[in-house]
Amino acid sequence: MTKKRKRQDDFQKVKLKVGKRKPKADNATDVNFRTKGINLTEQLKTGTGPTTHRHLNIKDLLSQLHHYSGGVKQGALVGLRELLSLHPHLLDQHLSSVLSEVAAVFTDKDSTVRAAAVRLLRFLAQCVPSERVAPFFPLLSAHLTCAMTHIVEGIQEDALRVLDVLLEHYPALLSARCTVLLRNFLELISQRRLSRAGKGVEERKPGSWTLSTAPGRTVTAQQWRLTVLTRLGCFLQAVVEERPAEERGTFGDFLDGEEKGRGCVTPLELTWEEHAFRKGGVQVYENSGAQPAVPSSFRLRPVTEPGAGVTEGLVSVETVRGFAATLVPLLLEVWVEASTSEQGKTDSAHLLAPESMSLMYQVLTILQLLRRLTPERHQKDDLDAWFRSSYLNDFKHHFMKNFPYGLLEVAKHKKKGELKRTKQQAAAGGAGSVEPLALNVTLCQVMVSLSSRPQGGQDAEWLGPIRGFATETLSSGVRLSSRHLAALLEVVWRLVLTHRSRAVTEELLQAAQVQYQQRNLTLPVRMLLLRFFSRLYLQEHQAQPHIARSKVLSRWLAALPLQLAQLGSRNPHLSAQLLQTVQAAAAWKNRDLLHSLQTHACRLYDPQEGSVVLLPADSQQRLVELVYFLPLLPPELLSCLSRCCTAGRVSTSLAASLVRLVHIRSSLCSWSAGRQEVAVSDVDYFSFLFSTLTGESSCSHGNVCALLGLPVMLAWFSSEKLAALQHAGEDMVLPPSPLSPLSIYPTQQEQFNHHWLIVEEVCHCLETLGSRSQCFDVLQNAICKNLTGLQVVPDSTAAALLRVVSRLLDLSLLPNEILLRFLSDCCLSLLSLLEQEQGIPNNAEKSEAVRDVCLAALSGVPRLLRLVLQSLRVSDLCEEEFSQLAQTLSYLLRQSQLRNHMLANAALLQHIIQDLTRYCQGEAQEQWLTDLLYCYSVTLSTHRGNLGLRDIY
Amino acid sequence: MSAPMEVVVCADSAEQLWNCAVFELHSGTNLLSYRGGNTSARSLTVLNGEYILGAQLGKNVINVWEIQRKDQLQQKIVCPGIVTCLAASPNGLFLLAGIAEAIYVWEVSTGNLLAILSRHYQDLTCLGFTDDSSHFISGGKDNLALVWNLASVVQLDSSRAPEPRHVWTQHSLPITDIHCGLMGPQARVATASLDQTVKLWEISSGEMLLSVLFDVGVMSVTLDPCEYFLFCGGSDGSIFQVSLCSTNLSRDKTFQSDSEGNQVFKGHRTLVTCLSVSMDGTLLLSGSHDETARLWDIQSKQSIRSINHKGPVTNAFIIPAPANVLLPDSHPAVPLPRFSRHLNPSEQSDGPESGGVCLRLGASVQGPEETYLQKAEKLHSLMCAVTDKSVFGDGENTKVRVSELEEEVKTLKKINKDLYDFSTQLLTKPS
C-alpha cells in the first residue's frame, strides 16, 4: 500500500493548460547573471613558452620535425631558427634535442628540408662553442656519415654542405674522428672494385678502388669530384692543423729534416713550480714504493679538448701510408681524366680550362697535405722516402709532362650553357677559380718534397723545369702574395739543399733577392723574405759550404746595415729582425757585413736620428753590443757614441755598458791577453772619455797626443754646443759674481743623474788605465787647454771635473796652478749654487751628490781649500752676499773631514771673518754672523784646546 | 808540516820573478816556481799531475815543466799559431789548445794531432773539460759556446767533420769564461760573457737553466763543488756570489745583493780574471788585473790573504796537490812525446821514430748488435731447452719411461674393468 502511494508521489502528472505559462522546471538554470572574463597573462605565457610568429613553441616545432610532410618539416626548421635567434636562452635548455632532431633530417629525402637543416645548423654552430657541442658530436658525425654514404645523390651533396659548416666551426672535433670520414670521402668519388674472378672475401684487395661516375647527377663527374676533393682538402688541413705536438713557424715545412742531422734534442718545456713546504704532506707509496703508482690515463671524454684530439687513425706512418696508397692512385686518375678532357679541345696541352685547373690544384693540395699528416719529423722523412719510391715515376710522368700550366683563354662571347656551367661551378666549389700560379707553385712543392738529398744528382734532371719556374717567377718582378711566396721560398730552400751546387744556389738566391729588392712590399711579405734569408744564413751557413760561399747571400748581408739605418724608427719589429741577423753575422766575422757596418756606423749611431736612439730598448742594447764587433772605431764614430752617452736618449745602464765596451776595445785594456786587434787608438779613446766626462763639451787634443808621444790629431769634437752655451741668455744661467766666478748652468735633475752615473763609469775606466800619473797629466792638460777659458759651465760638468780629479789624484801627484784655480772656481760656484738652490725640494739627490763631491775635492786635493779661501775677498762683495758667504763658510767649518785643512788655513779664515764682521758693523748682528762666529770658535777652540792640552803635558 | 792537500797555481803576465808558481793553500807559502816566459790567460794547465803546461803570451809556443823540477823549462811545444787557451783532460789522455778559431786535439801518449775543430768564427777564449773527460766545452769571441763529445771528435771518420753536440747561441757578446761542474755528462756548465750575463746550462739536454744579469761585464765564473753558489768576477773588480738555491723561480733574473746568499766580495780594483773554489767549498781564490791574487773566506766574505804579483794575474786555480809536487827526485811516469803540428796520421805512423800504434775507433764497424727482444727470445729458448731436457731426459731414458708409463696405464685399465664388472654384477644381480 505504502509502496503504491510513494510511487504516485514520484510520478505526479503535470498538467499543462493552454494559455498558461509553462511552469519552470525544477532543474532549470537561472541565467540571470552576467559574467566577465579574468585574464592572467603571465600564467598563460609560462604555460606555453615563447613562440614563433605562428604561435608554435619549441616542443611543437621539434615534434613537427617528425611529420611526414616535407613542407611542415621545412617550416618547423625555419621556425626553429627564428625562435632560437629570438630567444637564445632556449638553446641552452634544448640543445641536445635540437641537435639530435636536426641531425636526423640530414638524410631527409626532400631537398628543401635538407637545405633548411643546413641553414639551421650553420646558425647553431655560430651560437654554440665547440666544447658544448663535444658531447653531441658522436651523434652528429654519425648522421653525417650516414648522409655521406647515402644512396641518394642529393643527400650526398648536401652532406658536404653540412661538412662545410662543421669544418668551419668545429675543426678540432671533426679531425678527431677522421678515420671514418676519410673512408667516406673515398666512397663519394669511387667505388670498391670487386674482383670478378674470385667470389671469396679473401680475394678482395683493399687497395683496388676505381673512380666511379654517376650518370644521373646534375653536375658533371669532374665538378662532383672537385667539390669532394675541395672538402677533402679542407678536412685534411683541419687534421694537420689540429695536430697537437708539432710546432710550426710561419714557414711550416721550411726546416723539415734540417735539424735532425745535428742530433737535435726535443726541447723540454720546463714548468717551474713553487715548491710548497708542509703543504702536500708525506706521500706514501703503495708496495713500499717498489712499484710507483702510475697515474691513470683514463679520460672521461678524450675528444673534448681540441689539443688532445689524437687522431688514432693517422698517428703512425703505416696508417697514413695505407690511406695514401688508396688515395693517391685515385688522385692520379682524377688528374689524368682532367688533363685528357682538355686535350680534345686545344692543341697545346699545358693550357687548361679553369675547371680542370682547380681540380688539379685540389689534387696537388691533397697530396701536399698527405705528406704533412704524420706528426713527427723522422716519420715525415719515412713517408717522403716511401712516396718517392712508390710514386716518383708516376708523378714525373703525369705532373711534369706539361709542367708550367697556363690558363686557357675563354672565348669572349660566352654561350648560355657555358655561363650556366660557370655558375654551377661557382656554386659547387669554394675555390671556383684557381690561378695558374697557385697550381704551379703547389706542383713545385709536391715534386720538390720528393727529391732526396743524397741523390741530388739524379734528381737534378727532372727538377730542372721546377728550378726554372721558381727562378723565373721570383725574378720576373711580379708582386707575389705572401702565401705563394712562402711556398715558393720553401721550394727554393729545398732546391738549394738538394742541389748542393754553387751555381744553382746563386741563381735561385739571386731570384729571391730580386723579390727582396722590390719597393713597397707589404710587411708580411717583407718579413717572409727577411726570415728566409736570415734563416738560410744562420742555419745552413756552417754545414753547407755552397751556401756559405754564396755571393748573393753575402751581398744581401752587406746591404742590411744600410737598410737598418734607412728604416729608422718606422718599423721596430722589422728592425729587430734585421738586427738579429746583423749581430749574428758580425759575431761570425762576416767580412762583407763588417765592412758595410763600418761604412754606415756613423748613421746608425747618430745621436740625433740614428737607429740607436730611435729604436726600443732591446734593439738599442743589440746595437750597443754591435759596437764591440766593429773592426775600427774612428774618431767621428766615437764622437757620435760619446754624444749618445751623454744625450740621455739611451738608458743610463746602456750608456755605461757602451763606455765599458769602448774601454774593452781600446789597447789599454786586454781582458784576454792574446792578440786582440785594437779598434780605438789611445788618443781617440782619451778624447772619448774626456768628452763623455764633460758632457756636452768637447776639446781638442793636441796636447794629449803630444804627451803620449803619438801623432798629433786634429780636433775632432765639435764644441758648438758649449760655444752656444757661452752665448746663452742671461736668464738661463746664473751670472758670475765674486762668490761664483763661473756662470753655472743648472741642469735638470734626471740629466744630472744620468751624467753622474756615466761619470762614475768613466772614472773607473780612467782608474784602470795603468800608469796613474800619466793619466792624470793627460787629464790635467786637457782641462787646462779646453775648459779653463770657459765662462759658463754646466753644473754636471763642474761636478764631474771635481769628481774625476779627486778620484785620480794620488799623493805623489801635484796638480798645476791653472788646474787648481779652475777647480777652485768650480768648487766655489757649485757651493754658492747649493746655497741658492736650497729651497728647491726635488733637487735633494743632486745637491747631495754635488755637496759630496765638493767636500771630497776640498779635502782630497791639496791647496784647493786655500785657493778657495783666498778667492773670497770680502771687500768685493755687496751686502746681500755677506750672508751667503757666511752660510757657505759655516757649512764648511761644520764638516769634520775639512777640519785639519781649515786649521792649516786658520790665518786666512781669521782674516775673512774679521773683514766680514768689520763690514757688518753698525748693523744689528744678524743670525748668520752669530752662527759663523760660533762655528769658527768651535772649530778653532777644539784645536786650541788640544794645543793647550799638549802644552800642559 | 804535513803534505798539503790542495795547492794554488798562479801565473801572471809579467816575467820578472817566475812564470808560474805553486803556493800552499792555507799558509800561502811559495812551494815551487817555474821560470821562463809568461803565460797567457786561461792557458795554464796541469797534465796528469806530472807536467805543467802554459801557453806563451803572444807566441806560438807552449811551455812545459815537469812539476817537481822547479825553475827549469823542460820542453817547448811549437804550435801552428798563438795559443789563446789550453786544457788538458782530467784523465791526462788528451790535450786541447785553442789556436785562432780552431781547437786542436792532441793525444798525449803519442803526440799525434787527432783533430782540428773549426766551428768557431772568431778566436777562442776558453776551453773546459767535464770531470770525466767525456765532453769539453769551448767558448769564443763569436758569442758561441759549443759542447763537444770527446769520443765523437776523436773518432776516425773522414766522411764528415765532427759536429758539436750542442751549440749555445744565447750570449750576445764574447764569452769570457766557462766553468764545468762535476758529474760528467750530467754536469751543469756556467758561461760568463761580456754581455753582463752568466748563464747556467745542462750538458745532457743542452737547455739553459738560468741566466743572471749583472751591472758589469763578467770576466770569470766558477761554481762551488756542491753547486750551491755561483761566483762571478766582474770587470769592475767585484766578485758576485749568486745563490742557486734561492726561491726565485724565473729563468732570467737580475742580480741584486741581498742577505740570503746573493752577496758581493769587494777588494779587487779592476777586472777579476780568474776564480776558483777549494775542494771543501770554504775558500775562494780570485786573480785580478790589479796584480794580486786574493783568497777569500766564503762564509764571512773576507779577504784572508793576498798574493802579490808583478803583473796582471792571468791564471789562478786551486787543484788537489799532485803527488810529485813535493818530491824532487820523482819522475813523470811517461815521457812527453813530440807533439805533431800536422793532421796526417798516416805519415805519422810510417815514421821510424813512432814505435807505437795509433788506436782509434772507426765509425761503428761491427754489425748492429742484437736487440734486447732478440736476446730475450734467445734466452727464453735456452731456458725452454733446459727444462725440456730435465723433464724428459735423453732418448734411452725416455723409452724406458714410456714403457713404464704404458704398463701403468694397462694396469689402471685392468683395475678399471674389474671395478666395472664388479659393479655391474652387483647392480644387475636380482635382489
Task: Report the major sheet of chain B.
Answer: 5 strands, mixed
Q: Could you give the count of β-strands of chain B?
A: 29
- Widest sheet of chain B: strand order? 16-17-18-19-23
Low-confidence parts of chain B lasting 5 or more residues at pLDDT below 50?
Answer: 347-355
User: Which parts of chain A are unreliable, with pLDDT below 50 for 5 consecutive residues or more?
Assistant: 194-207, 245-266, 276-281, 283-294, 301-313, 411-432, 697-721, 947-953
What does this structure look like?
The complex is a heterodimer of chains A (953) and B (431). Chain A is mainly alpha-helical and 953 residues long. Chain A contains 42 helices and 6 strands. The longest helix of chain A has 27 residues, at 317-343. Chain A is flat, with a radius of gyration of 47 Å. Chain A starts with a helix and ends with a helix. With 431 residues, chain B is an alpha+beta fold. Helix content of chain B is 15%, strand content 38%. Chain B has a 5-stranded mixed β-sheet with strand order 16-17-18-19-23, with no helix packed on it. The longest helix of chain B is centred in the last third of the chain and has 34 residues, at 395-428. Chain B: Its main location: other. Chain B: InterPro entries: WD40/YVTN_repeat-like_dom_sf, WD40_PAC1, WD40_repeat_CS, WD40_repeat_dom_sf, WD40_rpt, WDR18/Ipi3/RID3, WDR18_C.
